[in-house]
């Protein structure tokens, strides 16, 4: 499709893998302008893959547009939540899913990333060589980190690290977080399920994002490396590169941050909402 007139013109790569310990890949994703989203289903026998697919299918109806507003994205979220809550017994009832990603937005004629997140899947931004986690995990361990009761190193091995505090479905009525970020030419956005940072730390992710200039090679290598390091969960990665950004300023056009071409005992558990954790779902 001709994207002439879009505030952000992007190219992307996508990769997904069930991992080495899961029989089913419960991740679903959407990578079609102006939406780049990952949903990580949970529920196992309750068919988390059905919940994640239902959410992605709802947002798929918005593809092909030049940009979306916060209101349009939130309306799609509400429809998606209704679809998940209405899943019938034997076809996903009781299951849930996370949702994270970025959407191209037009703010007074300028290109923005509209980031959204619900759960513990993640969205990152690599800009000018700096990798930043845009989203904030909705999880028990993140709450403990924020309160000062747990450090990040301990959190990686904490038995509660798979317990999330917000989801779509699974009895949760949590709302997503939204961020509006001015886009710059050369931005590289990473949208991923928690299976990726569960195996690769931020330095490892940044190294691959910088080493692989092609977004498809970057996405494939991220997933392959996460599988090689254990693959304890489903793993999905979308890498989205901003080729051009419309802006009243020339700052972003003068600074291209496109990544250059080149370089214990585990506590295993499925992601689950806090409400189900005590019941041992």
Describe how the helices and strands are arranged.
Layout: E1 8-17, E2 27-32, E3 35-42, H1 48-60, H2 70-85, E4 96-97, E5 99-107, E6 110-118, E7 122-127, E8 130-133, H3 140-147, H4 152-155, E9 163-164, E10 168-169, E11 177-182, E12 188-192, H5 202-211, H6 215-228, E13 235-245, H7 251-254, E14 272-273, H8 274-277
Task: Output mean pLDDT.
Answer: 86
Share in helix: 25-40%
CATH superfamily: PPM-type phosphatase domain
Q: Which structural class fits the helix and strand makeup?
A: alpha+beta
Radius of gyration: 18 Å
Please indicate the count of domains: 1
Count of beta strands: 14
Largest sheet: 7 strands, antiparallel
- As residue ranges, the low-confidence spans are 250-268, 275-281
Description:
Helix content is 26%, strand content 29%. The chain has helices at residues 48-60, 70-85, 140-147, 152-155, 202-211, 215-228, 251-254, 274-277, and strands at residues 8-17, 27-32, 35-42, 96-97, 99-107, 110-118, 122-127, 130-133, 163-164, 168-169, 177-182, 188-192, 235-245, 272-273. The strands form 3 sheets. Strands 2, 3, 4, 5, 6, 10 and 11 form a 7-stranded antiparallel sheet that branches. Strand 5 (99-107) and strand 6 (110-118) form a beta hairpin. Helix 1 packs antiparallel against helix 2 and helix 5 packs antiparallel against helix 6 (215-228). The chain is globular. Residues 250-268 and 275-281 have low confidence and may be disordered.
Q: Features of this protein?
A:
281 residues, alpha+beta, Phosphatase 2c, domain 1, seven-stranded antiparallel β-sheet, five-stranded antiparallel β-sheet, 8 helices, 14 strands, globular
């Amino acid at each position: 499709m001709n994207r002439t007139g879009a505030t952000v013109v992007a190219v992307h790569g996508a990769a997904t893998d069930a991992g080495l310990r899961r029989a089913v890949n419960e991740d679903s994703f959407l990578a079609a302008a102006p939406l780049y989203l990952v949903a990580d289903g949970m529920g196992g026998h309750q068919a988390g893959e059905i919940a994640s697919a239902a959410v992605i299918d709802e947002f798929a109806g918005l593809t092909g547009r030049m940009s979306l507003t916060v209101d349009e994205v939130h309306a799609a979220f509400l429809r998606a939540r209704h679809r998940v809550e209405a899943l019938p017994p034997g076809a996903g009832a009781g299951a849930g899913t996370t949702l994270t990603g970025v959407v191209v937005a037009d703010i007074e004629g300028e290109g923005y990333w509209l980031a959204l997140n619900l759960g513990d899947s993640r969205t990152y931004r690599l800009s000018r060589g700096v990798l930043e986690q845009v989203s904030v995990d909705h999880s028990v361990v993140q709450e403990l980190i924020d309160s000062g009761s747990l450090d990040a190193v301990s959190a990686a091995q904490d038995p509660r690290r798979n317990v999330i505090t917000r989801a779509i479905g699974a009895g949760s009525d949590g709302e997503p977080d939204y961020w509006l970020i001015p886009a710059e030419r050369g931005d590289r956005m990473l949208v991923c399920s928690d299976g990726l940072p569960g195996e690769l730390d931020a330095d490892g992710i940044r190294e691959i994002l910088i080493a692989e200039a092609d977004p498809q090679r970057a996405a494939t290598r991220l997933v392959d490396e996460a599988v090689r390091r254990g693959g304890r969960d489903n793993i999905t990665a979308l890498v989205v590169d901003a080729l051009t950004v419309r802006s009243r300023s020339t700052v972003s056009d003068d600074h291209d941050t496109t990544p250059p071409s080149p370089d214990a005992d585990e506590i295993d558990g499925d992601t689950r909402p806090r409400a189900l954790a005590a019941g041992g779902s």
